[in-house]
Amino acid sequence: MPSSGPYDEYALDPRAVRRGFDRASASYANAAGVQAEIRARLLERLDLVKLQPATVLDLGSASGQSSRALKDRYPKSQVIALDASLPMLSEARRAQGLLRRFQRVAADAHRLPIRAEAIDLAFSNLMLAWCTDPDRVFSETARVLRAGGLFMFTSLGPDTLRELREAFRRVDAHTHVHRFIDMHDIGDALLRAGFAEPVMDTERLTVTYASAERLMEDLRGSGAANATAGRRRGLLGRNAWGEVARHLDANREQGLLKLSVEVVYGHAWRAELPRSRRERPGEVAIPIAGIGRRIDPKY
Q1: I want to staple 190 with a disulfide (CB 3.0 to 4.6 A). Which of 89, 195, 262, 280 is the partner?
Q2: Contacts of 28 by beta carbon, 8 Å cutoff, 6+ apart
Q3: In this structure, how many other beta carbons lie within 10 angstroms of the beta carbon of residue 237?
Q4: Is the pLDDT score of 224 beyond 60?
Q5: Do residues 146 and 118 make contact, with C-beta atoms less than 8 angstroms apart?
Q6: What is the pLDDT averaged over residues 209-213?
Q7: At what angle do helices 238-248 and 162-169 cross, to 10 degrees?
Q8: Domain boundaries in the chain?
Q9: Which fold, 14-157+181-203+263-294?
């Protein structure tokens, strides 16, 4: 992906990202309404794919709603919920059905603890927007997919929350909204990683809120806190926040704040990779059957 130089104010802080989702684990299912809607639309796209995967990887599973839906769709498949947040995986345990169990793995998508060519379907809803190096994530996903395996995902495009970005820009020079990647750059990165014939498209949603405060509650409650390097380290202050809210009011229609969400959909099939790329030097392969033991029993 393109870089803006040695210091990038929009670069994501992985620890801040993880802390945000850790704190939001208990509230995520109720606060992540937009994420749930996008997840439902992505799942519908699986109806068009003739696929009976033996193993399914839910990348960035959060509190397990996608993993549960994937297990319901493919009851004979082994479904693996993978997330960097242990508290989210604890919540995911509760999302399981009595007869619809899935495995939970605490890991970073930039370095998957899964052997090469072990997965038939990789599914990811909005995780890419929180990754520091999407190229690495795509390369790892290609590595663990079998040749002919499918990667289906969503991300967020540059117009997402543009109204909020502009409102904050009028108040101070800090970064308050993430820089989201254009779908054409995502498609190029998929090709670099060894995926064949990536298909990308976008959909623009309008989300409404009664107040700016309710918007920020949902962002925090869903883990979507600001994790950029250029973020303000202290509190914004009541007067400055009042200015932000006033600028957001310019987007009201019929009493409701309107905000843009640009959804990027993508799917691609894993092409045959050169043998040298299938395993990393010094890699320890973990059998799928033993993957569940990576989770502390209390979760």
Answers
A1: 195
A2: 21, 62, 63, 88, 91, 221, 222, 223
A3: 12
A4: yes
A5: yes
A6: 95
A7: 130
A8: 14-157+181-203+263-294
A9: Rossmann fold (3.40.50)
